[in-house]
Amino acid sequence: MFRVFHTGLNAFEKIAVINRSDHIIEFVCACGEVGVGHTGVDFALEALAFSVSGRRGAEAECAYEIADAGNECTVVDDRGVGAERSLIIKKITAYLIIFSIRHTYGEIFMTISILLAQQIAQLFLMIFMGFLIVKAGLLKDEDSKVLSKIVLYLIIPCVILNAFQIGYTPETVRGLLVAFAASLLMQVVLLFAVSALGRVFHLDAVEITSVYYSNSGNLIVPLVTAVLGAEWVLYSCVYMSVQLVFFWTHCKKVISREASYDWKKIVLNLNIISIFVGILLFFTGIRLPALVNNTLHSVGSMVGPASMIVTGMLFAGMDFRQIFANKRIYFVTFLRLIAVPLMALVLLKISHLADLSADGLTLILIVFLAVITPSASTVTQMCQVYGNDSRYASAINVVTTLASIVTMPLLVMLLQMIL
Predict the structure, then answer these.
(1) What is the dihedral of CA 80, 81, 86, 87, to 10 degrees?
(2) pLDDT at residue 410 in the model
(3) Which of 159, 214, 221, 277 could disulfide-link to 300, CB 3.0 to 4.6 Å?
(4) What pLDDT was estimated at residue 156?
């Protein structure tokens, strides 16, 4: 017979209260009092199984307490010889991996709110730097066109190649496929929806592209890293890669006012080539030398600062009163930050893509975060390169970025409630 010594009963009782199940309370107390019939592994996993059975976030705050409690469980045989069970932590860890959303609703809401405020504060400081170098007379606002080309044709390809330099595993591939399916669904369906909105509300080229394309590159990577962990960044890059294909097909055609697609230029575009090369390297398991990969990472990390400096330089040449007096910008902001995300939420709900993977909820959260970000700074850069209204695009980018501090956390909370 085995006697079970354990600590952390409060964690188990807390789960019972959260799940509102008297059965769990009786079960845990019985294990603690009798000390037979269950090892520390058994009742720790039993309690955790009840915790994660609903695949909701409200119980997850107990997960690490459970792991700690399990670690302190010791099985003692009749001879009194103790044997620590590393299997306890291994099994509990497996459940923690399956239950991938690691915060409560309130924690996710607060975490994203704080991180957004910090990240956007940094972005606005970068915008202010671009603004200053123009106002100081060091550069002209039109000089930002050179920096836009560097971002589009050098920095972004480095981001793509670096993102796919990870190990190949069946779990990773399954996650990538779910993220790809969700990203493609968002891009295709929302393209038709935004095009319809454009016809109804007579949106121009800059407004249509600003509503449709999100700033997933600058905001989503630091958010995912801080909220979920660096291991999830790859899946955010899936959305970026899918969106890049649409950038260099649909967005380029709309912004440049081209009559038709030039497929040769599209296929030979450096960004499209980078996507195909990155995918090829991933599936073949080819790893670039550390020197090359570190260089790609360093250059790719410039995407946020460089894009924001371009926005600031353009902002320096604008009339502020004219910008904020333009009611049209606020309507575009509503479409970008409220209407499009709500349509995306409905699509993700009815698609049931979250059911295709054990990490499905986390993958859907990542894709949804990418959808609900402000308007893409890349639209501003494309307007510069192809001769459209880059100042108007920059103004929309600034207003939507500021408003997203409020809208993004609320939308994430709504996602957690619905899925």
Answers:
(1) -60
(2) 86
(3) 159
(4) 85
Q: Supply the pLDDT for residue 116.
A: 66
CA distance 119 to 400: 14
pLDDT score for 234: 80
What dihedral do alpha carbons 231, 234, 235, 237 form, nearest 10°? Answer: 150
Give the CA distances from residue 58 to residues 94, 106, 349, in Å, rounded to whole numbers and listed in that order.
19, 9, 19
Long-range CB contact pairs, 105-114, < 8 A, 24+: 105/57, 105/58, 105/413, 105/416, 105/417, 107/61, 108/57, 108/227, 108/412, 108/413, 108/416, 109/409, 109/412, 109/413, 110/409, 111/226, 111/227, 112/223, 112/227, 112/408, 112/409, 112/412, 113/405, 113/409
pLDDT of residue 27: 39
Residue range 197-208, pLDDT digits in tens? 999 999 999 999
Tokens found for residue 330: 């606020």
Residue type, 178: V
Residue ranges in the chain whose pLDDT is less than 50: 1-105
The answer to whether 374 touches 397, Cβ cutoff 8 Å, is yes
Q: What is the tens place of the pLDDT at every residue in 271-323?
A: 889 989 988 998 888 889 999 999 998 998 888 888 889 888 888 887 777 77
Phi and psi for 391 in degrees, rounded to 5?
-65, -40
Look-up: residue for tokens 């695009």?
Answer: 393
Of residues 227, 278, 281, the one with CA closest to residue 105:
227
Exposure string of 307-338, with b = 16+ CB inside 10 Å and e = fewer, is: bbbbbbbbbbbbeeeebeeeeebeebbebbbe
Amino acid at 362: T
Q: Which pLDDT belongs to residue 339?
A: 96
List the beta bridge partners of residue 82: 76
Residues 126 and 124: their CA atoms lie apart, in Å, by: 5
Pairwise CA distance, residues 342 & 335, whole Å: 10
Q: Quickly count: other Cβ atoms within 10 Å of residue 39's Cβ.
A: 19
Radius of gyration of the chain (CA): 25
- Strands in 82-84's sheet, in edge-to-edge order, are 3-5, 74-76, 82-84
CB contact at 8 A, 116 and 409: yes
